[in-house]
Design goal:
alpha/beta, Rossmann fold, globular, Ketoreductase domain-containing protein
Length: about 325
């Protein structure tokens, strides 16, 4: 009966939504806040009265985001730090510094992502390892540092941005897909541990979004576009923010992405690969690195453009 009650409650929660919680004076750490979705999320948090802590790599910085938020809130309510989140020592020092200068972090947004696009054979072991450090282990290190203070007060919220590579493996993105799939398991495991420990005041949210109209994806041209065009930053950020504010554990933007695990579950594996080949893989990569400006370079120094393949050869 308890399971039925929870299912009904979840369905009602999904259909009718609930009142958004008040996050004024919450200390929110956002990684990858210098641009893109991280910047947009930081602005939305600031508009709701949160104390926003910005974190990005030294080569990107937070100057633009800091300026935008300072025009919304008092400068004392926004703080900017630089950190290589792929470095465990730097992450540890960052959290200690924030706790000393700002206060205990009550909301963590794991948003930073380092994209690498190469086939698994063309990617070096060092590149693969660096990608996992930045995209997977950074979230683990941050949660390990921040979660104890949340548990002492039974209050907090951990948010992780996943992207579409968390729900299906995409060719030439093996490092990112590995990291994002790992984050799914990490978030589910943490949520279970919190439930077992009786920490009902600490929430988790995992957000999956379609690719966005940012510098990384502005040249994207896949067969998905007529059905699901690239999302604007404003639209994606507002949808994810609403899910956070009603404590939703998992959110997909757009909702069509909820169907992907179901489709993968009922279709033969080769059939799902044919769908991927038809809509994504054969002709054009998700983004074209060599056409981006130098300041937007990714971790991988070269862009691997997959050759056109037949459906059968790709599946065998």
């Amino acid at each position: 009966m308890e399971i039925v009650h929870v299912c009904i409650q979840a369905l009602s929660h999904y259909i009718f939504s609930t009142t958004e919680k008040n996050i004024r004076n919450e200390v929110v750490l956002i990684t990858g806040s210098g641009r893109g979705l991280g910047q947009q999320m930081a602005i939305l948090f600031a508009k709701r009265g949160a104390i926003v802590v910005l974190c990005d790599s030294p080569d990107i910085g937070n100057s633009e985001t800091l300026e935008l938020i300072s025009s919304i809130n008092n400068e004392k309510r926004v703080h900017a730090y630089t950190c290589d989140i792929g470095n465990r020592v730097e992450v540890k020092l960052l959290v200690e510094r924030i706790q000393t200068e700002v206060g205990n972090i009550t909301m963590l947004v794991n948003n930073a992502t380092v994209l690498t696009s190469n086939s698994i054979l063309d990617m070096s072991e060092d590149e693969f390892s660096r990608s996992l450090n930045a995209n997977l282990f950074s979230a683990y290190w941050l949660i390990r540092q921040i979660l104890p203070s949340m548990m002492r007060r039974n209050h907090g919220h951990i948010i992780t941005m996943l992207g579409s590579t968390a729900v299906f493996g995409l060719g030439n993105f093996s490092a990112v897909c590995t990291a994002k799939s790992g984050l799914v398991g990490l978030m589910e495991s943490i949520d279970h541990e919190l439930t077992l420990g009786g920490y009902d005041g600490i929430y988790t949210t995992a957000a999956v979004s379609h690719y966005l109209t940012t510098h990384l994806f502005q040249l994207s041209k896949t067969c998905f576009n007529p059905v699901i065009p690239p999302l604007t930053l404003d639209y994606a950020a507002k949808k994810i923010m609403h899910a956070i504010l009603i404590n939703r554990k998992f959110v997909c933007v757009p909702r069509l992405y909820y169907l992907i695990p179901f489709v993968k579950g009922i279709l033969p594996a080769r059939a799902f690969l044919i769908i991927l080949n038809t809509l994504v893989n054969p002709k054009i990569p998700i983004y074209t690195q060599h056409e981006l400006s130098s300041k937007h370079n990714l971790t991988s120094s070269t862009q691997h453009i997959p050759r056109k393949r037949s459906h059968m050869s790709a599946c065998q």
